[in-house]
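Minutes, project check-in
Item: structure for the 177-residue chain
Input as provided by the requester:
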Amino acid sequence: MKPVARRVLIGLLTGILLHFIAAQVNHYLAPWQLHVWVGGLVVALPALRLSYRGGFWIVALTGLLFDATTPVPFGLHALLFAIAHLLVYRVRARLASEENLIGVLVALLLNLGLFIVFAFTRFTVTPDVGSAGLRLFSDLIVSQLFLALIAPWFFALQVRSLEISGAGLRDDPTVMI
């Protein structure tokens, strides 16, 4: 298997694991009517450290997984994750992308931006906008706190999984992709 395909497979598997962990946390938060969303964490490391093509396939396929398990038009997560990936990929040369703190900050900003976009795309189908706004705000606060706590672990999991699989983070500079 080629290293790029191996990176995509490992990225997809870690994205699936993150999705299951978030689902389990949401199960435990349900009595308090709270919900965590970690979409920014899915996009952060592939956009900051992987090649464009490999990172794109990771976020697009993981976005399709998110689409399959949420009541949104199919392809919305994949499309917005791909756009977020492109935006971060274009500015990553200006960032210290190898630093964990930068990765966490990028994940928090991506999560905030994507959360707001999703809120506005779904706001038109909400019967009570006033209470929905308060609920979305509380979900955003809980999501950002959860993401800040889990992001360093998740980045380490992704990097270590890539190392164990032999795919690594970088492409061979002599090979054109």
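Outcome recorded: DSSP finds six helices and no strands in the chain.
No further action items on this chain.
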